[in-house]
Amino acid sequence: MNIAKDKVVSIDYTLTDDGGKVLDSSSGREPLAYLHGAGNIIPGLESALEGKGRGDQLNVSIKPTDAYGDRDDRMIQAVPRTAFGGAQNIEPGMQFQANTPAGPRVITVVGVEDDQVTVDANHPLAGQTLNFDVKVVDVRDATAAELEHGHVHGPGGHQH
Ligand code: ZN
Fold this sequence. Notes:
Layout: E1 7-16, E2 22-25, E3 32-35, H1 43-49, E4 57-62, E5 76-80, E6 95-100, E7 103-112, E8 116-120, E9 130-141, H2 144-149
Antiparallel strand pairs: 1-2, 1-3, 1-9, 4-9, 5-8, 6-7, 7-8
This protein binds zinc ion.
């Protein structure tokens, strides 16, 4: 069975940046399971996997436009410290989930002054070329419930 829209695909993967640093890996975990064609994974990786089958291995280098987009300096903003509620000891590098007009996002603290905190709402991997070393572990048909929900159920997917 080849990878196509509405298939459930399980992959083992290692993600490295252009310097060879490992950013993420399924090593030591369940393979990642995703619903193909549903936008569950970045577009560049999804298109590279199209048509592949169980056991196939690939190395792909994905430009930011097909991954998490380019960095946008307008997404770096100063917000009042009070916006963090009761959070104490806010330090650069800390990450918070925030609700923004564009939906929930992870924001990263990049600077702290007296009563102001500078945050960066760019995705942590925005602007980076991502190198994936991928092995296809399994391909199966999605269930009706998975298609309805738009994501995978069971090992490597949603547990609900
Ligand atoms: Zn579901």
